[in-house]
Amino acid sequence: DADVTQTPRNRITKTGKRIMLECSQTKGHDRMYWYRQDPGLGLRLIYYSFDVKDINKGEISDGYSVSRQAQAKFSLSLESAIPNQTALYFCATSAAGDYAFGEQYFGPGTRLTVT
Amino acid sequence: AQTVTQSQPEMSVQEAETVTLSCTYDTSENNYYLFWYKQPPSRQMILVIRQEAYKQQNATENRFSVNFQKAAKSFSLKISDSQLGDTAMYFCAFMKDSGGGADGLTFGKGTHLIIQP
Asked: Residue A96 in contact with residue A108, Cβ under 8 Å?
Protein backbone atom coordinates (compact mmCIF):
# COMPACT_ATOMS: atom_id res chain seq x y z
CA ASP A 1 0.00 0.00 0.00
CA ALA A 2 1.12 3.53 -0.73
CA ASP A 3 2.53 5.50 2.19
CA VAL A 4 0.92 8.79 1.10
CA THR A 5 -2.50 8.63 -0.53
CA GLN A 6 -4.61 11.34 -2.07
CA THR A 7 -8.30 11.33 -2.88
CA PRO A 8 -9.70 11.90 -5.38
CA ARG A 9 -7.07 11.23 -8.04
CA ASN A 10 -8.99 13.21 -10.63
CA ARG A 11 -11.82 15.67 -10.24
CA ILE A 12 -13.78 17.96 -12.51
CA THR A 13 -15.85 20.63 -10.84
CA LYS A 14 -17.66 23.82 -11.76
CA THR A 15 -16.80 27.40 -10.95
CA GLY A 16 -18.09 28.43 -7.55
CA LYS A 17 -18.29 24.93 -6.10
CA ARG A 18 -16.62 23.98 -2.84
CA ILE A 19 -14.21 21.10 -3.11
CA MET A 20 -12.00 19.23 -0.68
CA LEU A 21 -8.87 17.28 -1.52
CA GLU A 22 -7.78 14.76 1.06
CA CYS A 23 -4.40 13.40 2.00
CA SER A 24 -3.60 10.51 4.31
CA GLN A 25 -0.25 9.02 5.30
CA THR A 26 0.93 5.92 7.08
CA LYS A 27 4.55 7.01 7.42
CA GLY A 28 4.07 8.40 10.91
CA HIS A 29 5.45 11.77 9.83
CA ASP A 30 4.45 14.89 11.68
CA ARG A 31 4.96 17.36 8.84
CA MET A 32 2.58 17.60 5.91
CA TYR A 33 2.44 19.89 2.90
CA TRP A 34 0.22 20.86 -0.02
CA TYR A 35 1.74 21.92 -3.34
CA ARG A 36 0.27 22.99 -6.62
CA GLN A 37 1.85 22.21 -10.00
CA ASP A 38 1.12 24.22 -13.11
CA PRO A 39 2.71 23.54 -16.51
CA GLY A 40 5.93 25.50 -16.86
CA LEU A 41 5.86 26.74 -13.28
CA GLY A 42 7.06 23.82 -11.23
CA LEU A 43 5.53 23.13 -7.84
CA ARG A 44 4.53 25.88 -5.44
CA LEU A 45 3.77 25.57 -1.74
CA ILE A 46 0.20 26.30 -0.65
CA TYR A 47 0.15 25.36 3.05
CA TYR A 48 2.17 23.27 5.44
CA SER A 49 1.67 21.89 8.92
CA PHE A 50 4.22 20.80 11.51
CA ASP A 51 1.62 19.11 13.72
CA VAL A 52 -2.11 19.07 14.37
CA LYS A 53 -2.03 22.48 16.07
CA ASP A 54 0.32 24.17 13.64
CA ILE A 55 -0.73 25.47 10.21
CA ASN A 56 1.38 27.77 8.06
CA LYS A 57 0.70 29.61 4.84
CA GLY A 58 2.92 29.00 1.89
CA GLU A 59 3.67 31.02 -1.20
CA ILE A 60 0.19 30.83 -2.76
CA SER A 61 -2.39 30.32 0.01
CA ASP A 62 -5.02 32.79 -1.26
CA GLY A 63 -8.22 30.99 -2.24
CA TYR A 64 -7.33 27.87 -0.26
CA SER A 65 -7.81 26.63 3.29
CA VAL A 66 -6.57 23.54 5.09
CA SER A 67 -7.48 21.31 7.99
CA ARG A 68 -5.19 18.97 9.91
CA GLN A 69 -7.71 16.54 11.33
CA ALA A 70 -5.11 14.17 12.76
CA GLN A 71 -1.42 13.55 12.48
CA ALA A 72 -2.09 11.36 9.47
CA LYS A 73 -4.67 13.51 7.66
CA PHE A 74 -4.33 16.89 5.98
CA SER A 75 -7.10 18.28 3.77
CA LEU A 76 -7.05 21.12 1.29
CA SER A 77 -10.25 23.03 0.50
CA LEU A 78 -11.21 25.37 -2.28
CA GLU A 79 -14.15 27.32 -0.87
CA SER A 80 -15.28 28.66 -4.22
CA ALA A 81 -13.37 27.09 -7.08
CA ILE A 82 -12.28 29.21 -10.03
CA PRO A 83 -10.83 28.12 -13.39
CA ASN A 84 -7.29 29.31 -12.63
CA GLN A 85 -7.19 26.79 -9.79
CA THR A 86 -7.08 24.06 -12.40
CA ALA A 87 -3.83 22.28 -11.63
CA LEU A 88 -2.16 19.16 -10.29
CA TYR A 89 -2.14 19.11 -6.49
CA PHE A 90 0.37 17.19 -4.43
CA CYS A 91 0.44 16.29 -0.79
CA ALA A 92 3.80 15.54 0.82
CA THR A 93 5.11 14.48 4.22
CA SER A 94 8.41 14.66 6.05
CA ALA A 95 9.83 13.63 9.39
CA ALA A 96 12.02 15.54 11.78
CA GLY A 97 15.12 14.52 13.58
CA ASP A 98 16.23 11.54 11.56
CA TYR A 99 19.03 11.08 9.05
CA ALA A 100 16.70 11.95 6.20
CA PHE A 101 15.81 15.32 7.67
CA GLY A 102 14.20 17.47 5.06
CA GLU A 103 13.34 14.73 2.61
CA GLN A 104 9.73 14.94 1.51
CA TYR A 105 7.61 12.03 0.34
CA PHE A 106 4.94 12.86 -2.21
CA GLY A 107 1.52 11.42 -2.83
CA PRO A 108 0.40 10.48 -6.35
CA GLY A 109 -1.27 13.83 -7.01
CA THR A 110 -4.82 14.99 -7.68
CA ARG A 111 -5.67 16.38 -11.10
CA LEU A 112 -8.28 19.11 -10.55
CA THR A 113 -10.14 20.78 -13.41
CA VAL A 114 -12.44 23.73 -12.76
CA THR A 115 -14.80 24.51 -15.64
CA ALA B 1 12.70 34.49 -0.08
CA GLN B 2 14.52 31.90 -2.10
CA THR B 3 14.45 31.44 -5.84
CA VAL B 4 15.50 28.46 -7.92
CA THR B 5 16.30 28.78 -11.60
CA GLN B 6 16.53 26.00 -14.15
CA SER B 7 17.63 27.56 -17.41
CA GLN B 8 17.07 24.54 -19.66
CA PRO B 9 13.37 23.95 -20.34
CA GLU B 10 14.12 20.85 -22.41
CA MET B 11 17.09 18.65 -23.22
CA SER B 12 17.48 15.63 -25.45
CA VAL B 13 20.35 13.14 -25.51
CA GLN B 14 21.05 9.71 -26.90
CA GLU B 15 20.81 6.65 -24.72
CA ALA B 16 24.06 5.85 -22.86
CA GLU B 17 25.30 9.45 -23.08
CA THR B 18 26.04 11.64 -20.10
CA VAL B 19 23.87 14.68 -19.52
CA THR B 20 24.09 17.57 -17.08
CA LEU B 21 21.09 19.57 -15.90
CA SER B 22 21.72 23.03 -14.54
CA CYS B 23 20.28 24.67 -11.45
CA THR B 24 21.12 27.93 -9.72
CA TYR B 25 19.52 29.36 -6.63
CA ASP B 26 19.46 32.56 -4.70
CA THR B 27 19.32 32.69 -0.92
CA SER B 28 20.71 34.57 2.05
CA GLU B 29 20.56 31.43 4.18
CA ASN B 30 23.73 29.60 5.17
CA ASN B 31 22.15 26.31 6.18
CA TYR B 32 19.92 24.59 3.67
CA TYR B 33 19.27 21.47 1.64
CA LEU B 34 19.13 20.99 -2.10
CA PHE B 35 17.29 18.26 -3.96
CA TRP B 36 16.68 16.89 -7.42
CA TYR B 37 13.29 15.33 -8.01
CA LYS B 38 12.26 13.30 -11.03
CA GLN B 39 8.70 13.30 -12.38
CA PRO B 40 8.06 10.65 -15.03
CA PRO B 41 4.86 10.60 -17.11
CA SER B 42 3.15 8.79 -14.23
CA ARG B 43 3.44 12.23 -12.49
CA GLN B 44 4.82 10.70 -9.30
CA MET B 45 7.49 12.86 -7.65
CA ILE B 46 10.59 10.78 -6.97
CA LEU B 47 13.60 11.98 -5.02
CA VAL B 48 16.77 11.46 -7.03
CA ILE B 49 19.45 12.96 -4.84
CA ARG B 50 19.93 15.38 -1.96
CA GLN B 51 22.77 17.60 -0.78
CA GLU B 52 23.30 19.26 2.58
CA ALA B 53 24.82 22.71 2.18
CA TYR B 54 27.28 22.16 5.04
CA LYS B 55 28.82 19.19 3.23
CA GLN B 56 31.56 19.99 0.76
CA GLN B 57 31.54 16.54 -0.76
CA ASN B 58 29.23 16.18 -3.73
CA ALA B 59 26.42 13.66 -3.32
CA THR B 60 26.25 10.60 -5.57
CA GLU B 61 23.56 7.96 -6.06
CA ASN B 62 24.53 5.29 -8.57
CA ARG B 63 24.44 6.96 -12.02
CA PHE B 64 23.39 10.31 -10.55
CA SER B 65 25.79 12.84 -9.10
CA VAL B 66 25.76 16.52 -8.36
CA ASN B 67 28.21 19.36 -8.70
CA PHE B 68 27.50 21.60 -5.73
CA GLN B 69 29.20 24.98 -5.82
CA LYS B 70 28.05 26.84 -2.71
CA ALA B 71 29.80 30.11 -3.42
CA ALA B 72 28.39 30.21 -6.93
CA LYS B 73 24.98 28.97 -5.70
CA SER B 74 24.99 26.29 -8.33
CA PHE B 75 23.67 22.73 -8.07
CA SER B 76 23.86 20.75 -11.29
CA LEU B 77 22.80 17.13 -11.79
CA LYS B 78 24.85 14.74 -13.90
CA ILE B 79 23.28 11.56 -15.22
CA SER B 80 25.79 9.04 -16.52
CA ASP B 81 25.01 6.21 -18.91
CA SER B 82 21.54 7.63 -19.50
CA GLN B 83 18.68 5.17 -19.93
CA LEU B 84 15.29 5.39 -21.60
CA GLY B 85 13.69 5.29 -18.15
CA ASP B 86 15.43 8.53 -17.27
CA THR B 87 13.04 10.38 -19.57
CA ALA B 88 11.12 12.68 -17.23
CA MET B 89 10.76 16.18 -15.87
CA TYR B 90 13.52 17.01 -13.41
CA PHE B 91 13.02 19.59 -10.71
CA CYS B 92 15.68 21.26 -8.62
CA ALA B 93 14.43 22.21 -5.15
CA PHE B 94 15.68 24.23 -2.17
CA MET B 95 14.76 24.01 1.49
CA LYS B 96 16.18 26.16 4.24
CA ASP B 97 17.17 24.55 7.50
CA SER B 98 14.94 26.13 10.13
CA GLY B 99 16.73 24.35 12.94
CA GLY B 100 13.93 22.02 13.90
CA GLY B 101 11.18 22.70 11.44
CA ALA B 102 11.16 21.52 7.88
CA ASP B 103 9.81 24.36 5.80
CA GLY B 104 8.40 23.69 2.40
CA LEU B 105 10.41 23.21 -0.74
CA THR B 106 11.02 25.93 -3.32
CA PHE B 107 11.11 24.39 -6.78
CA GLY B 108 12.56 25.45 -10.09
CA LYS B 109 10.35 25.32 -13.17
CA GLY B 110 11.82 22.05 -14.31
CA THR B 111 13.80 20.58 -17.20
CA HIS B 112 12.16 18.09 -19.51
CA LEU B 113 14.78 15.45 -20.27
CA ILE B 114 14.26 13.16 -23.23
CA ILE B 115 16.46 10.12 -23.73
CA GLN B 116 16.47 9.04 -27.36
CA PRO B 117 16.99 5.37 -28.25
From this structure: no
DSSP, collapsed to helix, strand or coil, labels residue A85 as helix
Cross-strand bridge partners of residue B67 = B76
Distance CA B96, CA B3 (A): 12
**pLDDT digits over B40-86, tens only?**
999 999 999 999 898 889 999 999 999 999 999 999 999 999 999 99
Return the closest-CA partner of residue B79 out of B87, B94, A106: B87
Q: Which of B91, B102, B110 sits opposite A96 (nearest CB)?
A: B102
Q: Please check whether residue A41 is in contact with residue B109, taking contact to mean a CB–CB distance below 8 angstroms.
A: yes
Residues of B in contact with A43 (CB under 8 A): 45, 91, 93, 105, 107
Name chain B contacts of A58, Cβ cutoff 8 Å.
104
Q: Give A60's contacts (C-beta < 8 A, 6+ positions apart).
A: A36, A44, A45, A46
